[in-house]
């Protein structure tokens, strides 16, 4: 770039667009499991207890949370691009392990690797986009990033449903995931460029903090960061319930694999499509109202799904959950970037994403226990209550963080 690197979406559009494509490949890796794996657990591996079925989400959530926690530090120490490439290398065996799995333990191992893959690659694309765009269009940038990832989740969930209907649960649906891993790795090695140098363009002075200080500040001490972290955890708690229990619920009620694939795709499709608009609106209106409203909408929609019966009512509920999640997802990331100093922002993003994806593990355990004891409908209803309460916590605790509105960083 003439005159050296510059911050901004337009100034870095080619590299930014490439990172959007790379994150679509990351989302596709997750999407390969959304429709097929819960059914594989029941129909191929004969797992009847919901707690056993959801073990793969528990394994995924824990490994992804841990990978997120270290991704920011690794990006600061070694650079963004090497961490991105490492994440793709870890993801390559995932579809093959599921295709060849003779027992459920192989699937658990595959999801440990998938969690590391998602933690390293998705965290890094988020950090790299924040590096490139600067503070002015941060919400829009996160909207593009998350939209690409979750539209790929939706498209892959839909396609794998049809592939499973036509060719069986294995191997056809997971060959798509293998293609995503190969393409993502190739783009990252050949075309992606390092962005760590852009941080110096935004940094004014230094705010040196230890890893422990950053974890405590992001998790508990800062009003806004702690509210964001708990909202992220609960958001992915309810997404883990949707991922693990919705296909089983729909199958029990007699829907076909193709219909289940459509319903499974509706949530991430609306989620993905809405995030660009939500991110842009958060740049204009502020972060807090979108996060609060999105969490409350998700809670109401989950209650609808728990009470509904039939393809159309469930499709409406899934779409409303997706809309609420779209309001929340890019906005939470933008809020973290608003508050954290550029010198420790990558690590703060990692801590936030640790809490957010730990929600998968919490959701898998709680949903499995409640579903085994009281049924799937009760598990979804309980998740609705927790999600609504999380929105109220944001309303009470979070301060507005959008640049230009003098963010309140008072520490409790």
TrEMBL record:
Principal cellular location given in the protein's record: membrane
Topology term for the membrane: Multi-pass membrane protein
PROSITE patterns, alphabetized: MFS (PS50850), SUGAR_TRANSPORT_1 (PS00216)
Entry keywords, A to Z: Cell membrane, Membrane, Transmembrane, Transmembrane helix, Transport
Entry GO MF terms: transmembrane transporter activity
Domain of life: Bacteria
Keyword Transmembrane applies: yes
InterPro entries assigned: MFS, MFS_dom, MFS_trans_sf, MFS_Transporters, Sugar_transporter_CS
GO cellular component, one term: plasma membrane
Boundaries of every Major facilitator superfamily (MFS) profile domain copy: 12-402
Places the protein is found: Cell membrane
Transmembrane segments: 12-30, 50-71, 83-100, 106-127, 148-166, 172-192, 290-308, 314-333, 354-371, 377-396
Pfam family, one: MFS_1
The keyword Acyltransferase is annotated on this UniProt entry: no
The name this protein goes by in its record: MFS transporter
Organism: Herbidospora galbida
